[in-house]
């Protein structure tokens, strides 16, 4: 929470410099010098890339079988081996992939965007929220095995919940139309949605924001 909130807040207040928008302008010559870099993640590979421009001979020592470090797009046939587990192999349709590490490059990560441009890395638009997307759940129940728009789900939940609240105020007529099981399900939903505790009390939580505003001067 701190990293997510304090970092942009500090940049907005001018207490922290954002990443440079252009490549490092390193000077000097590395001719005849050999550098060993530990780790072939973004930092190691970028260091090698920039130092090579100055004439250094660079060798990256990477502990894993692949380069990229935490940056890892799993594609059909990608393998992963963890201690005490059998080798896992991804079985995806051709062209499908899953970013197991980073997937978002915010607009203010200008240095990363600079390298994407310089190295010709193709980028795709990333949607955090898409009300036009579909939910699809396999299994049992009246809503399973069909596509339902996120927008419809959100508005139906709001509509049905308010309908029930209106009925419950209207002379307890809710009791007549709810089974015990349905009532229990609704209580569970309300606890999750509203952040209620086990006794069904709402006590303000971190969901509503910081008690003390994060960032410099907060
Ligand atoms: C799940 C997840 C989601 C993320 N999402 C985002 C995102 O959306 N946007 C974003 O900007 N950032 C995101 N990040 C952060 C981002 O992935 C990292 O900041 C970045 O990849 C770090 O790069 P690095 O080169 O510093 O380290 P790493 O990628 O960790 O690279 C270190 C490398 O060094 C190797 N190594 C370690 N020790 C040795 C050794 N002794 N000898 C040899 N090799 C060694 C490791 O195997 C590894 O390959 C995410 C991270 C994770 C895990």
Question: What do these coordinates show?
Answer:
With 218 residues, the protein is of the alpha+beta class. It has a domain at 134-205. Helices cover 33% and strands 11% of the residues. It contains six helices and eight strands. The chain has helices at 2-12, 42-53, 110-118, 150-169, 174-177, 180-194; strands at residues 34-38, 57-61, 73-75, 79-80, 88-89, 97-99, 134-135, 148-149. It has a two-stranded parallel sheet with strand order 1-2. Strands 3-6 form a two-stranded antiparallel ribbon. The chain binds flavin-adenine dinucleotide. Flavin-adenine dinucleotide binds at residues 38-44, 61-64, 69-71, 101-104, 109.
Order of strands across the biggest sheet? 1-2
Global mean pLDDT:
87
Query: Main sheet?
Result: 2 strands, parallel
Uncertain residue ranges? none
Helix percentage range: 25-40%
Distance between the termini: 15 Å
The radius of gyration over CA amounts to 26 Å
Summing up helix and strand content along with how strands pair, one would put the structural category as alpha+beta
> What are the distinct ligands in this entry?
flavin-adenine dinucleotide
H-E order: HEHEEEEEHEEHHH
Number of distinct beta strands: 8
Overall 3D form: elongated
Q: Beta-sheet strand percentage?
A: 5-15%
**What is the helix tally?**
6
């Amino acid at each position: 929470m701190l990293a997510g909130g304090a970092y942009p807040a500090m940049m907005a207040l001018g207490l922290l410099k954002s990443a440079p928008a252009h490549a490092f302008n390193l000077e000097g010559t590395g001719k005849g010098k050999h550098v060993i870099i530990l780790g072939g993640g973004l930092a190691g590979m970028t260091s090698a890339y920039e130092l090579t421009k100055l004439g250094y001979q660079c060798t990256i020592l990477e502990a894993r079988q692949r380069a990229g470090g935490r940056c890892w797009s799993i594609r059909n046939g990608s393998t992963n081996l963890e201690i005490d587990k059998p080798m896992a192999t991804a079985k995806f349709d051709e062209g499908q992939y899953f970013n197991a590490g980073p997937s978002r490059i915010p607009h203010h990560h200008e240095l990363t965007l600079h390298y994407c441009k310089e190295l010709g890395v193709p980028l795709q638009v990333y949607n955090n929220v898409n009300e036009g997307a579909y939910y699809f759940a396999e299994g049992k129940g009246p809503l399973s095995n069909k596509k339902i728009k996120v927008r419809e789900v959100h508005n139906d939940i709001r509509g049905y919940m308010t309908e029930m609240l209106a009925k419950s105020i209207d002379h307890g007529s809710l009791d007549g139309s709810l089974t015990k099981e349905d009532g229990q399900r609704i209580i569970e939903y309300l606890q999750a949605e509203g952040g209620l505790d086990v006794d069904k009390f709402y006590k303000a939580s971190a969901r509503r924001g910081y008690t003390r505003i994060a960032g410099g001067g907060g």
